[in-house]
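How a chain folds remains the central question behind the approach discussed here. No coordinates are needed to read the tokens, only the vocabulary itself. For completeness, the protein is quoted in full, as a sequence line and a line of structure tokens:
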Amino acid sequence: MKAIMKARVCTRKELAAIFLFLAVLVFTFLLHNTDVLKVRTWNKGNSTIIIPKVSTEPDMHHSFCTFQPRSPEDALEELLLLDSIAWPEAPPLSDPLSLDQTSDPAHSTFTILPGRTGGQWHVGDQLEIIIKMSDFHGRPKKSGRDFLVARLHNQKLGAGVVGQVMDHLNGSYSAVFSLLWEGDAQVEVMLVHPREAIQVLNRLNSEQPDRIYFKSVFQSGSLSETTFCNVCLRPTQPLCNYTDLRTGEPWFCYKPKNLSCDARINHAMGGIKQNLKANENKLFQSGINLKVSIQTSGPASVTVLPKKQDQSEVKSSIVTSGPSGYYYQGVWRALDGTTVHQFNNASAITQCLKGKVVHMYGDSTVRQFYEYLNAALPDLKEFDLHSPKQAGPYISLDYANNILVTSRFHGPPIRIVVVSTSELRYIANELDGVIGGTNTVVVFGVWAHFATFPMEIYIRRLQNIRRAVVRLLDRSPGTLVIIRTGNLKALSLHGSLTNSDWLSLQCNNVLRTMFKGLNVHLIDAWEMVLAHHLPHNLHPPRPIIKNMVNILLSHICPQKGG
């Protein structure tokens, strides 16, 4: 997990043994399993799509929300991904929960460790801190598993970089920062969630995956009915099965009493059920234990001196990779090999996009890119499709410069305004309709609407999208594919239960692993929000979006800038 926590690592021999055992196990299971609604084999390759069936088992964990993998390979990958993001096990929560023994940021501290050259730091060095967590009585914690984030910053210089945090599982944590600018550098450490809050979130996703629910209107003539819908529904009444035949993406609605399943006309957000046990709401208190800064036991900043001549780069023994980039003078400087140009005016952006088709898919955080370009380019005119606000789809055209930009929401689950069922499109299916080529750019981001479901649902969605990306790049290798990661947001009790930073981080880790090795580019929204001085926001403010769009345009036009 980049910039945050370190999961346990298997040896190569252990992984090989796991691969062999699980491959045999999964293949045998699928060979003998017949409890599916339908099996359909596609011509390309020899892949088999297994359409999921809603279980009728008692309501235990998410047994009513279990789907069969598409293939033994998918099943094996799913198990390995789930293992890779598994948080270290913790003792069961007491019932009722006592807040006193949980981590209290007010009683916890961090300490900057001495530099390697007598307390001096130079550009190119690494700064390390130790974090000691204590409970509400001031007693040192004996175990870890809290969710912490850290950054190093200098607001006057417009500088910031994310720190990498490691849990020692004994109540102490280390954080390491790359020193990338001269001058003052101030450390900030924040407790996002104590481990008990993470346990609650994990339990809710397992036992209450339908706590966010949706609804659809069914209509025929003057007769209409509304029923609840979801990725999976408790088997309390007959269902309408809207599972996508091409991707196998599951979606169900309760069948209306007097209308057919074909009469469904729209999709909308229904509501949320919190389903918390006694005192669990106390784990999500702003200013107390939810996104609260931890104080230092000594100096909170260091002065970074110029890089020494012939200075070798300092490597930490506790981290395996560095940050993806950092801010300096408010501008994001990538450290992954990307040269980020500054497109500061409409002329530079237009010149870059001239002759290009840019397709954007995903949630509202991707729509921000579309909105930014429309606001920045006076000649890019949006065509009125009479689409619902916030839902789309959207199309903008600069006829003179032959620029086409589109934006479309990903398929359900989506928590937005009422949309027509005809506009519920899955990204994988949309990508299969893209011709592609050197003048085509595809941008997508999928994360914010999946955080309350079992991770298997998100993995299935990404596997489908990845297959479509591979097909697109196979037929049109010159197509540019760019993926936006998830980011941190402002949190409250409601925000934590619907889209916590912890849940977004889990999605990010899966996303990175799923697309690693493919010819795609990432916009690291997580680090770009965490490293910036502006408050965390689900929809990052314009200065951050500008930097993200500059990365996007730099991939489109690597030799041009404004």
Notes: Residues 343 and 349 are 6 Å apart (CA to CA).
